[in-house]
Write the structure tokens for this entry.
Amino acid sequence: MRDLSKDHRWFSLNTATVRRQGSLIEIVDACARHGVRAIDPWRDQVAAVGLKAAVKAVRDAGLELSGYCRGGMFPCDAGHRTDARDDNRRAVDEAVALGASCLILVVGGLPQYSRPGSAASKDLSAAQEQVADAIAELLDYARGARMPLAIEPLHPMYAADRACVNTMRHALDLCDRIDPARSGMLGIALDLYHTWWDHELYRQIGRCGRERMLAFHVCDWLVPTTDMLNDRGMMGDGVVDIPRARAAVEELGYSGYVEVELFSQRWWSLPMDEVISTCIERVKTVV
Ligand code: ZN
């Protein structure tokens, strides 16, 4: 297991963590001030400043991208299928332009929430089948662009509206089905906020293997959690045994970035520099 206590070279900032404090350009500038080497930006943040300006800012700062958030939201009715497909292809193209290591996939839930305007459905199984088909289709495109796709299993409280793939087992079953050859082009983004509770977590990390462990996201689970979306904890403030999980991930041979991703009203209310300093300090001491 790597020693992260000496410096923060393996820290990556998911830019949602400070999305309320500034634009992507301002976040990139702050990263330069703090010696941060990598970020994972969101599509809306890139769109707000324009792809060209985002690419230039990232390049000028010498930043790597530990991922690009996000593609997915696949389930939809027939009338929205072309839109969903084209939107995901654009996400792949943007990830390529930005030099991301992978495109994170938040796969979507029921059609009416994944692609608003779609006819309402309660058929979660059908949504899950659509996800499998759509990832297979997108993977063909992503292979051509040489952009790996990382399925991020989300906590089951988001099954209806954000992701109907909720466990590592389900995500890895999809990888087995869609990419049995383990080409390295389809894998997992393991986010501990979503997966820490799973009694199979360690078994499934072992099953994942190095070639499918594409991204590693950390924050903490607060008790009590007061908001389903925007009350993630800073590492060390909750109950997740982060070092144990990191050890298991690195046991596979994973040597990539440890990405901090918080959606938190509390941390959004603090100055950007203070939040980044705290992330770095916690990565060094409790991750
Ligand atoms: Zn994540």
